[in-house]
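MODEL INPUT / OUTPUT PAIR
PAIR INDEX: 1
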Amino acid sequence: MAQKNKLQKFAELNTFKNVYQNPFHENPILTDHTGEQIDMKGQWHKHFGNKNPITLELACGGGEYTLAMGKDYPNRNFIGIDIKGNRIWKGARVALAEGQDNVAFLRSRIEFIEHFFEKGEVQEIWITFADPQLKKARKRLTSPIFLDRYRKFLAEDNLMHLKTDSPVLYEYTLEVIEEQKLELLYENSDIYAQPLVYPELRFKTFYEKMHLEDKRTIKYIQYKL
């Protein structure tokens, strides 16, 4: 039954107008809801029908953060990115049902991300509870190799956000910021120990709720590339 439901979700996902997919996983090629190949690099304003600033949520899962920010900031555009189609299905379905036209989803390996956005097309990136990759630092979404990918499409006046329960990813990211002499704007190893500095931090993903139940502390870093 679970497999049948999963296949049904994938079939529905293929019809969602707010989802673009990389079906091949080995080549940076996207298809739209018609199944046609489409080049979205530099073209996201056409999807949204405006030129409002774009924020990405990497490893978005069910898109809880993407959806919440889309509601709070209707004059911005938000794109959730994840490789798991059954996760993206959840967020994309909600966005369509609730008429959140400023929210879209991209199903792809994040290693391909620079192929889907033009230089200066994105203003902001959120990394929310991504896999800390304890054995492979180069695969961490805040590693130098990923930062170089983001630089290819981030606007000059950009913002990076990391929200995590992992002390390893938190400390590692601070080390990368120091080594690369990046501009650190804010960091906190326990954001709920005092009133939240930024309203966006109140949003909680599925995984954050689990971590809080396990009494883990939630950490946050804001910086610029």
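PAIR INDEX: 2
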Amino acid sequence: MKKKRKYQGLITGLICVALAVLIVFGIYFVQKMGNKIDSELSIEDAQTLIDNTVMGLPGNVSTGAKYVADNTAVTVNDLSYGTEKDIILECTYKTVNIGDAIETNIDKYLENVYAFYLDNTAQGIKTNATKIKLYIAEIIEADLAASTPVTGEVTVYLYETTPGVFTPYLSDETVNTIFGGILDAKNIITSAHTVTHNGESVDIANLNTLRTGINDYIALKNYDSEKPDTSVPIEKLWNTLKYDFHRNFVVNQQYKYLTRGLATTLEITALAVLLGILIGFIVAVIRCVNQKTGKLTLLSGICKVYLSVMRGTPVMVQLLIMYFVVLLPLGVEKFPAAVICFGLNSGAYVSEIVRGGIMSIDEGQTEAGRSLGFNYIETMWYIIIPQAFKAVLPSLANEFITLLKESSVAFYIGVADLTLGGIKIRSITYSNYMPLIAVALIYLVVVLGLSKCVAILERRLSKSDKR
């Protein structure tokens, strides 16, 4: 028998190794096949694509960038096919030298625009950012029209992102070259915060209208300097997941929203369970005493009302009422308000669990306690409740798990719990998938871990009962 099991284990191991080798070779083959161009491109088609791309680079309000685009010509002379689903275009270009013009005359441009702004202000003429932009455009473009165009050679890459669809890869260096140093000019303009006027240096950093008009003159918003993703679908999915993971959790250590939120969630749950157990035992004992002896009728009635309210209304509504109606006017903070609300809610369910445990104890245990000289309270405390607690302990542990999930609504009153941590990341990255899935997975892992602990506890208790 042992020899047979040994061979079975060996065969299973060999099968696993063979499957792993097949998967590795399959991925390698798919990736190799994925690096081939699915469709060819003519020089004429490439020229059309480049022309459309160049004309689409300026932003909607960018007067300067549109002027440069209108005076830029990129000619595709030759193309060749690369090894990464790419087409390499050898091009020549002709454009205006806006980078040199801005670098050489920036002080003159800013001084003239500032004087125009002051003159209009002194005359009571309302000067908005559009007027500023058009005025500086008139000055700069007069110089550009009188300057000598620049020419040169540039290499542009086209990537086949989907079969038959080619996307130009315009790096910052490529755009800067084709548009005559426009990115250099943009950096010079946006970093200029002082202007010389009448021989004095004037700070214009806080003149928002002036700054907006100047910055809007050059704006390139219609291109992405990231290299297009041409990987096969499964690899592209993996790359997308890696990018989303990095953007949502790694950048600025945004994962800390989740770790701190998880700590807060566990704190609320633990404290609420302790409060719920305390309230639950008290309510259960009161109801059991009333049921068996007929005493504590008033307290038992109050407990029944409490149970009806807590079990008959949604926990989220209870939380909102508890915080905004009851506790906020008293100056109670959000965290203790959440603990109190969830503790009261849990106490209602714990009380029924405990009451069921107490009522399940044989009546002979009560008579045994009386025969030992205990009164009713002592019998309950020393004999009945310990046995009942042991019987209901697994159910109480499950209540802890249920409360952990229910505490996810604490963010409605602004508690920085795990759910709010995911929502915070979502508001920063505008990504729905990754933050919300991460929150769900964290809850799932924690709940599965606690469920495993409950299962172990139940096995231990069942073994102790058999001894």
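PAIR 2 NOTE: The chain has two domains: 43-230, 256-466.
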